[in-house]
Design brief:
The complex is a heterodimer of chains A (451) and B (430).
Chain A: E1 19-22, E2 28-33, E3 39-46, H1 60-67, H2 77-86, E4 90-95, E5 100-107, H3 111-123, H4 129-145, H5 150-163, H6 177-180, H7 185-195, E6 201-207, H8 211-222, E7 245-249, E8 255-263, H9 272-282, H10 289-297, E9 301-308, E10 316-324, H11 328-344, H12 349-366, H13 370-382, H14 389-399, H15 402-412, E11 419-424, H16 426-435, E12 442-444
Parallel strand pairs in A: 2-6, 7-11, 7-12
Antiparallel strand pairs in A: 1-2, 3-5, 3-6, 4-5, 8-10, 8-11, 9-10
Chain B: E1 15-18, E2 24-29, E3 35-42, H1 56-63, H2 75-82, E4 86-91, E5 96-103, H3 107-124, H4 127-146, H5 151-161, H6 176-181, H7 184-194, E6 200-206, H8 210-221, E7 245-251, E8 257-264, H9 272-283, H10 289-297, E9 301-309, E10 315-323, H11 329-346, H12 350-368, H13 371-385, H14 391-400, H15 403-414, E11 419-425
Parallel strand pairs in B: 2-6, 7-11
Antiparallel strand pairs in B: 1-2, 3-5, 3-6, 4-5, 8-10, 8-11, 9-10
The chains are: A alpha+beta (451), B alpha+beta (430).
C-alpha cells in the first residue's frame, strides 16, 4: 500500500475492422461497426475547405457548408431542421482549412430517415437569396463578435503573421469583414458545384447501423449525386518574413493571451508520429515541460500547451498560454526557455516512454466512441491515407526512439524563429517585454492589420 | 411521427456494493477497448461552503493533485502519464468528481493513487503548495469569467437569484478575497469533514475482471477507517424572489445581451423534466420558438438560448438572447415575453413535444457511447438517488411528460418573480 504497484505491459492498440466499397457515382465509403450504444455516426468529408477560398473571398467554403441545410429538396430551412429534430438526429456542416464536412449522428432506428434528408442537403440544396441574406448577416455579426474573444483574436493574428496574406492558411476560415462584403450567393453556388463532388469526397459510417440495407440506402440517398473533381489548387507560397513581436491591445485586460508560432510540417510528413511524441513532451500533456513550468512551478497560468497543425500544406507549430497580465514578460521568457530547453536538456528516456504511451492511448481513446471512429476515419479519407493508417501510426510510435526525438527537436524547434503574438494590455506589458530584449512590437488590430 | 422508444442498449449494466467503511463501489465492465476509467465522487460541492470561505470545494480539487504521503508531488500526474493515462477533476455546486482514464494495466495504480490521497493528503499539504494552487485558481477565474465575453453575467446571476445565506449565492470558483484568505488549517478541516469513504462513491468502468477489481478496491480502500457521513445543515428554505429584479452591467462585448432567470423545482423534483422540455421548445435548435421568431423571422437577435439549470437544492430556468446590431434589449424583451406568454397559455404542440423528447433521448444515447460519461452517470444517480440504477427512472420522466404537464410546470414557474440582467458594451473597453 505504501509503494506504487507494479504495472503490467501496455495493452496493444487494435483499431476496429473497417470495410470499404464504392457507390455507383464513385463515392468511396468506409464502414466500421460499433454496438455499444444505439447510435450511428456518418461523416462525409469533402477534400476542399477554406484553403480553397480565393484570397479576396475568404469565408466562402464555410458559408457554402452553412448554406446547404438552409432548405433542401422539398423542405425549407425550418421544416428541414424540424424533421431532423423529430428524428433525434444531429446534422452538422462546416469547413476547416483542408476540408468541408457534413456529419449526421442519429439513433439507429431513425438513421436512414436522417440520411435521406442529408442526401437532399448534399445534392439538392435550395440556396435561396432570402436565406443567404440572413446567413451572411449572421456571419458578419459573428465576425464582429470575434473581437470579444481574445483566444480567437490571437489565432487569427498568429496565422496571418506566420503564413502571410498570399497563403490560404493566412486567412481565417470564417473570413474577414472585408471579404464577407464581397461574397454573393452565386459564389456559394459555384463553390458547391465545383467542390462538393462525389469523386472529391469520402464517407464514413460508424456505429450500430443495419448492415443488410446500408448499401442500398446509401445508393438511394446519394446515388444521384454526380460530377467530376475540381482542379488542383495552386502551390503554397514560401514562408514570409514576420515580426518577432506583435501586440493586439486590450486595455485593462486581466490576462494576456500569449502565442508563439513558427513553421511546422504537413499531414503526410514521415516526421508526424515523432513530432506528435515530441509535442507531448514539450506541451501536449499535463506533465509536459511547458505546463509544468508555467502552471505548476510558476503559477502564471491555468494551463500552457503546444501543438503542431498537420495540414495538407505545411502547418504551424504553436505554444500557448493565458497568463496573469503582470506575469506576461516572465511567461514569455519561460516559454522561449522551454523551446531552447529541448536543445539544452534533450529528451530523456522517461519522457520518450511517456510520449509513446500517451500517443498510443490517444489512438485507443480516439477509437473508443462512435463519433471518434467517424472522425478518425474521416481524417484518413480527407487526406487520402490508407485504411490501416491507425496501425501504421501505432507502428511508427513503437519504432521512434529517443534519439529520433532529439533529432526532430533540432530540426523543428527554434526559439529564435518563433513569432510572439500577445493579446493584452499593451501599456502594462510592453515595458517588461522590452526588458527581455525583444524588439519593439508591431501593433495590430484584431484582424492582424498593423495600426 | 417516429417515436423513439428506449432500445435494449439503453441501460448501463453494473454491480454495486459497499465497503465496511461506507464507500459505495460500482463496477461497470465494457471490454470493447483496452481502457479503464476510475471515477470517484465526493458528495461535497460549493453548496457545502460557508460565506467567507467560498471557492473551497473547487480549490480542494486542485489541492488533491499536490501529492500524498506515498505519492509525493508530482507523482500523481507523473506516474499515470508515464503509462498514457490522464486525469482531471470537476466541481459543481453539488459535488466534486475525480477521474482517471487510461490503459487497463493502470487500474491498480489509479486505485492506489486515489486511496492514498484520501488516506493521507492532510498530513502532507503545505502552505507553499496551497499558495501555488491559489494562483492557478485565480488565473482560472480570470480565464473562465473575467476575460471571457459575458462572463461577468455568469457570476452575477446566482448572486442575484439567491439570498446571501443560501449556498447557491456564491459561484463555485469563489471570490479572490476568500481564496486569498484560505489557510492550511482550513484545508485540513474541510478535508476532515467531507473527504471520508462514507461520503464518496467509486465507479470502476471499462476493461477489467470484476473479481480482480473487487480485490483491488478492498486492498486499497478497505482498510481505511469507518467514519460517519458528514453532518450537513438542514436544506435552506426554497428560495424565491420577493420582487422582479433588474440589473445592468457592462462587459467587454460588442453586442448587448439579455438574461432572464426564474426559480424552478430542483433536479428530479416534479416539473424538472417538464421544464427541460419546455426549454427545448423555446430555445433548443433552429426549429425552436425563440429562434424562429427572433433570429430567423424578425432577425433582431444574433443568438437565443433557454435551459433548465437543474441542481440538487433548487434550479433556475434561464433564457438569453443577444441583440443584433441596430436592435436593442427592450425590443428583444418584448419578443421573448410574447413567446413565454404563448407557451404558458397553450403549452407545446404534440409535434414540439415529440421533437423535444426525441432530441433529449438521442443526446442520452450519445452519452451512453462514452465510457467516462457512463461512469459519471452511475455516480450521478448514486449521488442524487442513493442508487446507481437511475437510467430508467431518469428517461421515464421525459416519456411521462405530456403537453399539459409541460404547460403547467412552465406556467407555474414563470409566473414567479424574475431576474432580468442586461450586459451592455462597455463604452471604454469594448
Amino acid at each position: 500500500m505504501t509503494s506504487a504497484p507494479a504495472v503490467g505491459p501496455l495493452p496493444s492498440v487494435v483499431p476496429p475492422h473497417a470495410d470499404r466499397f464504392t457507390l455507383s457515382n464513385g463515392l468511396e465509403v468506409v464502414t466500421v461497426r460499433r454496438e455499444v450504444a444505439p447510435i450511428v455516426s456518418a461523416a462525409l468529408m469533402i477534400r476542399s475547405g477554406a484553403g480553397n477560398d480565393p484570397p479576396e473571398m475568404s469565408g466562402l467554403a464555410s458559408l457554402t457548408a452553412e448554406m446547404l441545410d438552409e432548405g433542401a429538396g422539398t423542405r425549407d430551412a425550418l421544416t428541414l431542421a424540424d424533421e431532423l429534430e423529430r428524428l433525434g438526429a444531429d446534422l452538422w456542416l462546416g469547413s476547416g482549412r483542408d476540408g468541408s464536412q457534413l456529419s449526421v449522428q442519429a439513433p439507429h432506428d431513425t438513421f436512414f430517415a436522417a440520411l435521406d434528408i442529408a442526401g437532399d442537403v448534399l445534392v439538392r440544396p435550395r440556396l435561396t437569396e432570402s436565406d443567404w441574406e440572413r446567413v451572411l448577416a449572421d456571419r458578419k455579426t459573428a465576425n464582429a463578435q470575434r473581437r470579444d474573444q481574445p483566444e480567437a483574436v490571437v489565432s487569427v493574428v498568429s496565422d496571418r503573421l506566420l503564413f502571410g496574406d498570399a497563403h490560404p492558411y493566412g486567412r481565417p476560415v470564417e473570413g474577414f469583414s472585408r471579404t464577407l462584403e464581397r461574397l454573393h450567393l452565386d459564389d456559394v453556388r459555384a463553390f458547391h458545384q465545383t467542390h462538393w463532388r462525389p469523386n472529391h469526397a469520402f464517407l464514413v459510417v460508424a456505429g450500430a447501423f443495419d448492415e443488410a440495407s446500408l448499401r442500398a440506402r446509401l445508393e438511394a440517398a446519394l446515388g444521384g449525386w454526380t460530377g467530376s473533381p475540381p482542379p488542383e489548387p495552386a502551390a503554397s507560397p514560401a514562408w514570409p518574413a514576420r515580426p518577432r513581436l506583435c501586440i493586439v491591445d486590450r486595455p485593462g485586460a486581466p490576462q494576456s493571451i500569449v502565442r508563439l508560432v513558427a513553421p511546422g510540417t504537413d499531414r503526410l510528413s514521415p516526421d508526424r508520429p515523432g513530432l506528435a511524441m515530441l509535442n507531448a513532451i514539450l506541451g501536449g500533456s499535463f506533465t509536459s515541460r511547458l505546463n509544468f513550468n508555467l502552471r505548476e512551478k510558476n503559477g502564471f497560468t491555468y494551463g500552457a500547451s503546444s501543438s503542431f497543425a498537420f495540414l495538407r500544406r505545411p502547418g504551424s507549430f504553436a505554444a500557448r498560454a493565458a497568463v496573469f497580465a503582470e506575469s506576461t514578460a516572465p511567461a514569455v521568457r519561460e516559454m522561449l526557455g522551454e523551446l531552447r530547453g529541448l536543445h539544452e536538456r534533450p529528451v530523456t528516456a522517461d519522457e520518450h516512454a511517456k510520449a509513446r504511451a500517451t500517443l498510443l492511448m490517444r489512438v485507443a481513446e480516439g477509437l473508443a466512441t462512435t463519433g471518434g471512429i467517424a472522425a478518425s476515419f474521416g481524417d484518413i479519407g480527407l487526406y487520402g491515407l490508407p485504411l490501416d493508417e491507425p496501425l501504421r501510426f501505432v507502428a511508427a510510435l513503437e519504432r521512434t526512439t529517443a534519439d529520433d526525438l532529439r533529432a526532430l527537436a533540432a530540426r523543428y524547434i527554434d526559439p529564435e524563429a518563433a513569432s510572439i503574438v500577445i493579446v493584452g494590455d499593451r501599456a502594462a506589458i510592453e515595458p517588461g517585454l522590452r526588458e527581455l530584449g525583444l524588439p519593439a512590437p508591431v501593433i495590430c488590430d484584431a484582424d492582424g492589420d498593423p495600426l | 411521427m417516429p417515436a423513439l422508444v428506449p432500445a435494449p442498449m439503453l441501460k448501463i449494466e453494473f454491480e454495486t456494493y459497499a465497503l465496511a467503511n461506507g464507500l459505495r463501489v460500482i463496477l461497470h465492465t465494457d471490454r470493447s477497448s483496452p481502457l479503464v476509467a476510475v471515477d470517484l465522487w465526493y458528495h461535497v460541492g460549493s453548496k457545502d461552503e460557508v460565506p467567507g470561505r467560498t471557492g473551497f470545494a473547487h480549490l480542494f480539487e486542485h489541492l488533491m493533485f499536490m501529492g500524498s504521503r506515498h505519492a509525493p508531488y508530482p507523482a500523481f500526474d507523473a506516474i499515470m502519464e508515464s503509462w498514457g493515462g490522464h486525469n482531471n477533476g470537476t466541481t459543481s455546486n453539488d459535488r466534486t468528481n475525480y477521474y482517471e482514464i487510461g490503459p487497463r494495466n493502470l487500474l491498480e495504480t489509479f486505485l492506489w493513487l486515489e486511496a492514498d490521497r484520501l488516506a493521507t493528503l492532510p498530513d502532507v499539504i503545505t502552505a507553499e503548495e496551497l499558495e501555488k494552487q491559489l494562483k492557478v485558481v485565480q488565473n482560472e477565474r480570470r480565464q473562465s469569467y473575467e476575460n471571457r465575453p459575458y462572463g461577468r453575467a455568469e457570476l452575477a446571476i446566482p448572486e442575484a437569484m439567491y439570498p446571501a445565506d443560501h449556498p447557491y449565492h456564491w459561484p463555485t470558483i469563489g471570490s479572490h478575497e476568500d481564496l486569498e484568505a484560505a489557510t492550511v488549517d482550513d484545508v485540513r478541516a474541510f478535508f476532515d469533514r467531507f473527504y471520508r469513504p462514507s461520503n464518496a462513491s467509486l465507479v470502476v468502468a471499462g476493461d477489467f475482471d470484476p473479481a480482480e477489481a473487487r480485490a483491488l478496491v478492498d486492498r486499497y480502500f478497505g482498510w481505511q477507517p469507518k467514519r460517519e457521513p458528514p453532518q450537513r445543515p438542514p436544506h435552506p428554505a426554497t428560495p424565491r424572489l420577493a420582487a422582479d429584479v433588474e440589473i445592468s452591467l457592462t462587459d467587454r462585448v460588442q453586442l448587448p445581451r439579455l438574461r432572464l432567470a426564474w426559480h424552478t423545482p430542483a433536479l428530479f423534483a416534479p416539473g424538472d423534466a417538464d421544464l427541460d422540455l419546455a426549454a427545448h421548445v423555446l430555445g433548443g435548435g433552429k426549429s425552436s420558438r425563440l429562434y424562429r421568431a427572433l433570429v430567423f423571422e424578425r432577425r433582431i437577435a444574433q443568438d437565443v438560448f433557454a435551459y433548465q439549470g437543474s441542481q440538487m437544492l433548487s434550479s433556475v430556468f434561464h433564457i438569453g438572447a443577444t441583440a443584433k446590431p441596430e436592435h436593442d434589449l427592450a425590443e428583444i424583451g418584448v419578443a421573448i415575453d410574447a413567446e413565454i406568454g404563448r407557451l404558458a397559455a397553450e403549452g407545446p404542440t404534440e409535434a414540439e413535444l415529440a421533437r423535444a423528447r426525441n432530441t433529449h433521448l438521442a443526446d442520452f444515447y450519445k452519452g451512453l457511447d462514452h465510457l467516462q460519461t457512463r461512469a459519471d452517470l452511475l455516480n450521478h444517480y448514486q449521488n442524487l438517488l442513493g442508487d446507481p440504477d437511475g437510467v430508467g427512472r431518469d428517461v421515464g420522466r421525459y416519456a411521462d411528460a405530456t403537453r399539459a404537464s409541460v404547460r403547467d410546470a412552465f406556467a407555474r414557474a414563470l409566473a414567479g418573480k424574475r431576474l432580468a440582467l442586461q450586459t451592455l458594451p462597455d463604452p471604454v473597453t469594448a
